[in-house]
Design goal:
With about 375 residues, the chain is α/β, with parallel strands linked by helices. The protein is built from 14 helices and 16 strands.
């Protein structure tokens, strides 16, 4: 089949969860299908990037408005490639390409992948919702990333008859083992249990709560990632007197990520809002057999991915006392860490390998295109 993947941005260079997942699923689907991806570029010039078995066409963007790249050429590219495709796999939210599709909608089946409601720019929804609902009505199937998110989304409520939950997945082959770096991490930080977190330094990730919780921890907290909140977190680390415990690592390259997962004792995702719809990094930690501490964000799928008492511990979002308590419990209980870690790896194998996601989506694409 010829499948057109439409997404706001693409990895690399974008490191967001949707963008990284789209790259993963393109690689997986390209084993058996002809894949073309379409997104906005960071630059004012259009370009095409060729990977092993698929191509990514990036429409030139002139600016960013509300975190969205404005790409005037998106419509022309969409019309060109849609007409050559059997199915369009449309990743939402994606207002620019949603608008580009509206006036020239091709006679091609569409499967919408619903990654998240629009949360931060909720005040714009009265303007955007008619366009969004038009695409949802047009879609053959709407794919939610977890049963929890599918049930909680008010945007999907009127379209439940065409919704199906398909968990996101990752390909563990992307991880590069680096025993020497793992050893170096343990040598540098292993005087205490190592707690690892990986994510952008932005408000919904909840890192200020983790920094404050660290006052109650006898552990080293390693936070990998970049973002505009870094200066604020650096000030908070000094104010809370935890500079000997909390370490901001900055961007960790993909080739080095496995060493941090291997070296850590516990993984933590302290996010506080539904912007965190799933938490792909939880799956990565589970692949490495690490127990996870996450938050029970109402309507999010994070606490569905990490099952409390099975693969880790779930605490209320923003509750620094509960967060510290869960991390302390795991850091001081080797047997619990081992039990949760084994269950985490088993849950990954059963639910979150990219091959399972690819097989489920292929079935939906075939049904949408009438090829079943």
């Amino acid at each position: 089949m010829k499948i057109l993947e439409v997404v706001k941005l693409f990895y690399p260079p974008e490191l967001g969860g949707v963008e990284v997942f789209t790259a993963e699923i393109c690689r997986e689907l390209s084993k058996n299908h002809q894949i073309t991806a379409l997104c906005a570029a960071h630059e004012p010039e259009s370009r095409v990037d060729h990977y092993n078995h698929y191509a990514v066409y990036r429409a030139a963007s002139i600016c960013r408005v509300f975190s969205t790249a404005i790409a005037p050429g998106a419509g022309a590219l969409l019309r060109t490639f849609a007409g050559q495709s059997d199915v369009i796999h449309f990743h939402m939210p994606n207002p620019v390409f949603n608008l580009a599709m509206f006036p020239h909608f091709p006679d091609v089946p569409v499967v919408v992948h619903w990654h998240s409601d629009i949360v931060r720019q909720w005040y714009l929804m009265p303007l955007y919702r008619p366009l969004q609902d038009w695409l949802l009505r047009r879609a053959s199937t709407i794919v939610a990333t977890s049963p929890a998110y599918m049930e909680s989304s008010t945007d999907l409520r009127r379209f439940h008859d065409k919704c199906v939950a398909v968990p996101l997945g990752i390909n563990p082959d992307k991880f590069i083992e680096n025993p020497e770096m793992e050893k170096a991490i343990r040598s540098k930080y292993g005087n205490r249990p190592i707690i690892f977190s990986l994510g952008r330094l932005i408000p919904y990730k909840g890192y200020p709560h983790l920094v404050r919780a660290a006052k109650r921890l006898d552990a080293n907290v390693l936070i990998a990632g970049e973002g505009w909140m870094r200066p604020e977190l650096e000030r908070l680390i000094l104010e809370e007197g935890v500079s000997d415990k909390v370490h901001l690592l900055g961007r960790v390259e993909q080739k080095d990520v496995a060493a941090f997962y291997r070296a850590c004792d516990v993984f933590v995702l302290p996010s506080i809002t539904r912007n965190e719809a799933f938490g792909i990094v939880q799956m990565e930690a589970m692949y490495f057999g690490k127990p996870v501490v996450c938050t029970s964000i109402p309507g999010s799928g994070t606490a569905w991915v990490n099952q409390t008492g099975v693969t880790g511990i779930v605490v209320p979002p923003g509750d620094e006392s509960a967060l510290a308590g869960a991390l302390n419990e795991l850091c001081t209980n080797q047997s619990m860490r081992d039990d949760f870690g084994r269950s985490a790896r088993r849950r990954f194998d059963e639910q979150f390998h990219i091959s399972r996601t690819g097989a489920a989506l292929t079935g939906l694409f075939k049904r949408a295109a009438g090829k079943v």
